[in-house]
């Protein structure tokens, strides 16, 4: 669903470059046929907020969604809003898919963001905080504490907090300090008791300490105090001999948009490290202040930071509700989603004698399609690569890595393979947004182990999810391939919904061999059999498939299009879908986030339906299904329908050929689009409406719950069969 910076939330925040507008628009379609992508993203984050507001969800999950909303919005400002402002300031063109002036776009963003942030604060104060209190988790204010409580907290303050605080004065000898992005701060006005002179100081709330301090635990009841409240009420210890006049919380968001001219640099890693350092000092783009801040303090901050009034967000305390991620980790199973233990895909389960599975034997029998997190990543992708690293018959492993971690078992498997003398190629995308520094560290770790590390193609990000294992069997080299929709990351695989295909098919193996050669060398491959590859072929291939459905519909043959993506923005794809709809093709779009397509418009898109599903897992897979006159063509892969994916990234879709797998994917789509399934519906006016109850007010079925229940039934049936 959504991005969360701590790698525990619902969102994959792939880097968000600015999309240009395709110049070859269809003149027969109306001008206002696209929804604004920025406002569509804010509408997506509103859907996240609606989950936090939902009283049917467990209380700690609601707190988690509040934190996710805040994290998402931070990234939106740091990248999208920052990029808009940078282009305006530097005089660059600011393309929008609705043809509006960039200043108007920023004004609309500001207005909608202000509304959403107030709603976010209100959801905490009036909905989630009371729900937590009813369940025995109180987040209290200082004035609600008893004297014994304050005494205990003062001791904690003295021993754990006071030593790491760093108050910074602002006077002629001390210039206004640097305020780091996303830090929570206190603006403090004090008076010198001897001179009567008023002074200003800034105090950063230490981010390494728990944001919510435990006050007292009695059985299942526990109380917490925000850390900034504890500090605010003990400021006298920091300023002895001074009178504390006022103190207010504030928080700054900085521009963290990154620009690297790859064709003008000799060393991408060095250039990236320099840009990461520069990013820390990007210009301010948003100032959040507590609603009790006086005008004098506000004026000082605005003047010193160079912030406009449009960029000031006055909000009820507490600011920065990302701190709720800490509360959401409280071990109260009754306040969380019911635990789900991923099952092992049927093809990879141990045999009747519980012997270890041989992945190569299993994959040779038939293509295997796994569905994470319902089916385990650890017992499929990870175990496959670990076996390949140890197998003496494996000669080479080639893999793309976009987001993972240095301690990942995937990285360790590649290191083990290299140390065992195998040829290992890792294509590492060091420009993955907000993971750049981590990726540089573990890429160097791979290099030291003897892995051939490649950083991709100039001007393109490598976003495809591919692994290729070359194994010698009976004097023949076999290609064992994995093509996925999600990252090779064991952590996010537990919360991101994704598909992965394992196959020994020679066509796929040769396709991947050619593609890896193109990525690591100078080959330019133009022909693939079971893959559609960006940037050269993917958009063209999809448009051809869409137009074929249009032709079938006009000829009276069976037709239909079903697409599941994270974002639907690309104008050529959208226009092709509009033309298909005009020909009578039923088009279903299942989108998690941004959607610029306008459904339900008479004469243009009345045959198009758009749905969105958000929940405990982030819907991350991309599926493309075409009826094809009764011979369905189905693809899975890494590409969203955005310019960055189709023009500036290496992406890959693989065609699914097993009839049972095609049927299973079709059934999943039918369940998602069913009126009995809880979802959001997009109207022609760009408004999303949640449909989560039936006509009698009963909750509709949750798609993810149904998917988990189906797997549990399969697991029980298999257990009975074994007995």
Automatic annotation (TrEMBL):
<feature type="binding site">
    <location>
        <position position="433"/>
    </location>
    <ligand>
        <name>Mg(2+)</name>
    </ligand>
</feature>
<dbReference type="GO" id="GO:0005524">
    <property type="term" value="F:ATP binding"/>
</dbReference>
<dbReference type="Pfam" id="PF02503">
    <property type="entry name" value="PP_kinase"/>
</dbReference>
<keyword id="KW-0808">Transferase</keyword>
<feature type="binding site">
    <location>
        <position position="496"/>
    </location>
    <ligand>
        <name>ATP</name>
    </ligand>
</feature>
<dbReference type="InterPro" id="IPR025200">
    <property type="entry name" value="PPK_C_dom2"/>
</dbReference>
<feature type="domain" description="PLD phosphodiesterase">
    <location>
        <begin position="615"/>
        <end position="645"/>
    </location>
</feature>
<feature type="binding site">
    <location>
        <position position="620"/>
    </location>
    <ligand>
        <name>ATP</name>
    </ligand>
</feature>
<dbReference type="InterPro" id="IPR025198">
    <property type="entry name" value="PPK_N_dom"/>
</dbReference>
<dbReference type="InterPro" id="IPR036830">
    <property type="entry name" value="PP_kinase_middle_dom_sf"/>
</dbReference>
<comment type="similarity">
    <text>Belongs to the polyphosphate kinase 1 (PPK1) family.</text>
</comment>
<keyword id="KW-0067">ATP-binding</keyword>
<dbReference type="GO" id="GO:0006799">
    <property type="term" value="P:polyphosphate biosynthetic process"/>
</dbReference>
<feature type="binding site">
    <location>
        <position position="592"/>
    </location>
    <ligand>
        <name>ATP</name>
    </ligand>
</feature>
<protein>
    <recommendedName>
        <fullName>Polyphosphate kinase</fullName>
        <ecNumber>2.7.4.1</ecNumber>
    </recommendedName>
</protein>
<keyword id="KW-0597">Phosphoprotein</keyword>
<keyword id="KW-0418">Kinase</keyword>
<dbReference type="GO" id="GO:0009358">
    <property type="term" value="C:polyphosphate kinase complex"/>
</dbReference>
<feature type="active site" description="Phosphohistidine intermediate">
    <location>
        <position position="463"/>
    </location>
</feature>
<dbReference type="InterPro" id="IPR003414">
    <property type="entry name" value="PP_kinase"/>
</dbReference>
<comment type="function">
    <text>Catalyzes the reversible transfer of the terminal phosphate of ATP to form a long-chain polyphosphate (polyP).</text>
</comment>
<dbReference type="Pfam" id="PF13090">
    <property type="entry name" value="PP_kinase_C"/>
</dbReference>
<dbReference type="GO" id="GO:0046872">
    <property type="term" value="F:metal ion binding"/>
</dbReference>
<feature type="region of interest" description="Disordered">
    <location>
        <begin position="6"/>
        <end position="29"/>
    </location>
</feature>
<feature type="binding site">
    <location>
        <position position="72"/>
    </location>
    <ligand>
        <name>ATP</name>
    </ligand>
</feature>
<feature type="binding site">
    <location>
        <position position="403"/>
    </location>
    <ligand>
        <name>Mg(2+)</name>
    </ligand>
</feature>
<dbReference type="InterPro" id="IPR001736">
    <property type="entry name" value="PLipase_D/transphosphatidylase"/>
</dbReference>
<dbReference type="InterPro" id="IPR036832">
    <property type="entry name" value="PPK_N_dom_sf"/>
</dbReference>
<dbReference type="InterPro" id="IPR024953">
    <property type="entry name" value="PP_kinase_middle"/>
</dbReference>
<dbReference type="Pfam" id="PF13089">
    <property type="entry name" value="PP_kinase_N"/>
</dbReference>
<keyword id="KW-0460">Magnesium</keyword>
<dbReference type="GO" id="GO:0008976">
    <property type="term" value="F:polyphosphate kinase activity"/>
</dbReference>
<keyword id="KW-0547">Nucleotide-binding</keyword>
<dbReference type="InterPro" id="IPR041108">
    <property type="entry name" value="PP_kinase_C_1"/>
</dbReference>
<dbReference type="Pfam" id="PF17941">
    <property type="entry name" value="PP_kinase_C_1"/>
</dbReference>
<keyword id="KW-0479">Metal-binding</keyword>
<feature type="compositionally biased region" description="Acidic residues">
    <location>
        <begin position="12"/>
        <end position="21"/>
    </location>
</feature>
């Amino acid at each position: 669903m959504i991005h969360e910076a701590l790698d525990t939330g619902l969102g994959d925040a792939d880097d968000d470059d600015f999309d240009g507008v395709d110049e070859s628009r269809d003149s027969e379609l109306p001008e206002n046929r696209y929804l604004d992508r920025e406002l569509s993203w804010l509408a997506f984050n509103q859907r996240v907020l609606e989950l936090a507001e939902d009283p049917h969800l467990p209380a700690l999950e609601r707190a988690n969604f509040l934190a996710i909303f805040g994290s998402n919005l931070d990234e939106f400002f740091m990248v999208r809003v920052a990029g808009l402002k940078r282009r305006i300031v530097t005089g660059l063109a600011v393309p929008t898919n609705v043809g509006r002036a960039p200043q108007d776009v920023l004004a609309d963003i500001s207005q909608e963001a202000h509304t959403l942030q107030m709603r976010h604060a209100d959801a905490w104060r009036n909905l989630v905080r009371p729900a937590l209190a009813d369940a025995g988790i109180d987040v209290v204010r200082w004035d609600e504490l008893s004297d014994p409580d304050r005494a205990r907290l003062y001791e904690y303050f003295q021993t754990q907090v006071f030593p790491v605080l760093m108050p910074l004065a602002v006077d002629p000898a001390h210039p206004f300090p640097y305020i780091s992005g996303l830090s929570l701060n206190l603006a403090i006005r004090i008076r010198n008791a001897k001179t009567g002179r008023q002074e200003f100081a800034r105090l950063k709330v230490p981010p390494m300490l728990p944001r919510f301090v435990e006050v007292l635990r009695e059985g299942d009841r526990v109380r917490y105090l925000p850390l900034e409240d504890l500090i605010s009420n003990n400021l006298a210890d920091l300023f002895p001999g001074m009178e504390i006049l006022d103190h207010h919380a504030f928080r700054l968001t900085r521009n963290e948009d990154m620009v690297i001219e790859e064709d003008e640099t000799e060393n991408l890693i060095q250039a990236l490290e320099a840009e990461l350092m520069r990013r820390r000092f990007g210009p301010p783009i948003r100032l959040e202040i507590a609603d009790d801040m006086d005008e004098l303090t506000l004026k000082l901050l605005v003047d010193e930071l160079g912030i406009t009034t449009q960029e000031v967000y006055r909000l009820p305390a507490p600011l920065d509700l990302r701190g709720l991620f800490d509360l959401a980790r409280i071990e109260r199973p009754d306040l969380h989603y019911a635990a789900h233990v991923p099952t092992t895909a049927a093809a990879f389960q141990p045999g009747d004698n519980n012997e270890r599975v041989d992945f190569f034997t299993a994959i040779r029998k038939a293509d295997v399609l796994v569905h994470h997190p319902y089916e385990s990543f650890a017992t499929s992708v990870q175990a496959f690569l670990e076996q390949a690293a140890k197998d003496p018959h494996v000669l080479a492993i080639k893999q793309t890595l976009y987001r993972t971690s240095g301690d990942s078992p995937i990285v360790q498997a590649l290191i083990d393979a290299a140390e065992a003398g195998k040829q290992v190629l890792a294509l590492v995308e060091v420009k993955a947004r907000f993971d750049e520094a981590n990726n540089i560290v573990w890429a160097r770790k791979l290099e030291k182990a003897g892995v051939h590390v490649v950083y991709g193609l100039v001007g393109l990000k490598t976003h495809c999810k591919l692994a290729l294992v070359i194994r010698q069997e009976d004097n023949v080299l076999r290609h064992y391939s994995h093509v996925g929709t999600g990252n090779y990351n064991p952590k996010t695989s537990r919360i991101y919904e994704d598909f992965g295909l394992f196959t020994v098919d020679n066509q796929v193996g040769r396709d991947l061999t050619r593609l890896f050669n193109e990525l690591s060398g100078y080959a330019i491959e133009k022909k693939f059999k079971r893959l559609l590859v960006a940037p050269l072929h993917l958009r063209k291939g999809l448009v051809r498939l869409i137009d074929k459905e249009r032709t079938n519909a006009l000829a009276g043959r069976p037709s239909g299009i079903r697409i599941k993506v994270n974002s639907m923005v690309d104008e050529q794809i959208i226009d092709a879908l509009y033309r298909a709809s005009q020909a009578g093709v039923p088009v279903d779009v299942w989108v998690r986030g941004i959607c610029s397509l306008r459904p339900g418009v008479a004469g243009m898109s009345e045959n198009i339906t758009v749905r969105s599903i958000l929940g405990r897992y982030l819907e991350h897979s991309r599926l493309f299904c075409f009826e094809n006159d009764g011979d369905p063509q189905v693809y899975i892969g890494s590409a969203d329908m955005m310019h960055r994916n189709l023009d500036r990234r290496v992406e890959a879709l693989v065609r699914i050929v097993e009839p049972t797998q095609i049927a299973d994917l079709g059934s999943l789509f039918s369940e998602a689009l069913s009126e009995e399934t809880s979802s959001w519906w997009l109207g022609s006016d760009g408004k999303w409406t949640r449909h989560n109850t039936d006509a009698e007010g009963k909750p509709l079925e949750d798609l993810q719950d149904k998917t988990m229940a189906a797997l549990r039934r399969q697991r029980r049936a298999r257990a009975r069969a074994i007995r």
